Please model this.
Amino acid sequence: MNSATISDLRKTGWLHRFACPVVLLLPLLATTPVLSEAPGWEDARMEATDRTETERNRETVRRAFEAWANGESVFNDLLADDVVWTIHGSDPVAGTYQGRDDFVERAAAPLASRLQTPITPLVHAIWAEGDAVIVRFDGSATTSSGTPYRNQFVWIFRMEGEVVVRAEAFLDLAAYREVIDNNEPG
Model:
């Protein structure tokens, strides 16, 4: 626009009527959260939060399994006191356990007491999405009679605050039962 045109706009009052309200609105427009009004912004924020939660949960489980593989006891740190643990299958050990102590006493301790060595996990994969983490691993140990114990596991966790609050376990219950039936507690 040349200066003659601007001068003409001033004479007609157009510049004053339209430019002044825009100038007055600039501070308001500058402080308006434009992103919050954009379509999909809430979804993008939720996806970022989900990614953060997903990575935090995956890392918590990865660190726990790494510590377990190095001989550390991890169940007290990884499992909530009131974890609900379900072992799927048709063996008498299959069922739902209410709380960490119930699970350890009735499912884990009977097996562990018949092993000379702790189970060593070999993790094949960890998948995570939000509060869900799935771990596919093999476990091996030596029984109290000196024979090898090997099993394959899939554990599905629901996490809250970096601890497992619900767990589902899939494993070869025949291998579990063989150790229980053929080995004396140590």
